[in-house]
Amino acid sequence: MTVIDWDVAVNTGIRLARPGPQVDLADARQAVAQLRELSVTAQGHVQEFTGMNLLEPAGPAVIVDRPGWIRANVDGFRVVLEPMLDRLGAQRIAAGAGTAGSITTAVGSRITGAQLGAVLSYLAGRVLGQYELFLPPDPDGNAPTGRLTLVAPNIVQAERELDVDPRDFRLWVCLHEETHRMQFSSSTWLRGHVQGLMQEMVLSSEMDAAAFLDRLRAAGEAVAEVVRGGEGSLLQAFQSDEQSEIMDRITAVMSLAEGHGDYVMDAVGPEVVPSVAEIRRRFQRRREGANRIDRIIRQLLGLDLKMKQYEEGAAFVRKVVAQVGMADFNRVWESPETLPTLAEIRDPDAWIARVVRPAALTAGADAAAPAAEDGAPASGGAPSAADGADAGAGGGAPPEDDAGGTGDAPPRGTAEGA
């Protein structure tokens, strides 16, 4: 049973998407070639700066236009959601839904597809780049590990409107997106962990008709509140208590990923992107100058919450790297247990105390053990190791410009806040 008509989603999104900037053929080809080249250049900078390593070779980014981005994201949603939605549909059929229910579902699937397409058409004009975690299987049935995508028309439009150096801006965007590729391609577990959280979120979404009407009323109230200038979003309105708890875990992971990307793109340094400080200032000023209608749409879609993820995540990374250095910060990528919770994203000292300090104490105790056997006192070994973590401050110095984020994107993406 189809809950979302994916073809309707693609067709609606492409039909509603705004056209890109006017670019002559030679300039368009030059932009595509340079973006591919700079994505490879950025890989080296990210690897050198973070100390992380890809587990498999990575080629240049895939360059797409707005319709191409919409198609890719519908494919991604389909990979993640369709198996779970089919399972929920089978449960409804087993519970006794008949022909009338099937007709209702067919109509509803087209409506849902159109709604998804409308959201994607809005985002397609803003997203600059994205690391696609979830892709359809290849012809042999193997699931690709991920794909880095850059939306050329949006990058060209943003650099023109910001009046910044095109090469610097393009490399700046590539640094953020290549950091995402590094995060998910340098570990064997992170992609599956994120997909598992998303599955939990969807499978906890079943509700009866009365609960659905309550959520619908809450959504209407959220719209009215946002229009009046208050806070709220449709995403929050439709979450159950169980989903809110899962969403906190998803938010923690994505805040870390986005904040880390933002930290790296600014901290790699002016020797790589000479005009990085000016790009950041203009980019932030542009986002803050969005018109009222655009701000309302962004808030309803939860994109302002996305901005908060960038800011809190970047602050977490800056604080941890400043206190314990890049090598100990990289413990976040070791396992699900070393990921920060949402509370720890907002209190980096708590993550350091839970993850870094115990490791330093253990290492200090192990180092002191042979001395103890030889009659030398073993005391002091562990504290000195912990103190040494503090002495690592300054590894990967935080950028002067601490404005977080590159924009309004769904998880995994970078966007300009038009």
Automatic annotation (TrEMBL):
Stretches with biased composition (Low complexity): 368-390
SUPFAM superfamilies: Metalloproteases ('zincins'), catalytic domain
Stretches the record annotates as Disordered: 368-418
UniProt cross-references to Pfam families, sorted A to Z: Zincin_2 (PF10103)
InterPro entries referenced in this protein's UniProt entry, alphabetically: CHP03883_F420-assoc, Zinicin_2, Zinicin_2_N
Entry superkingdom: Bacteria
PANTHER family: HYDROLASE, PTHR39420
Name of the protein: Coenzyme F420 biosynthesis associated uncharacterized protein
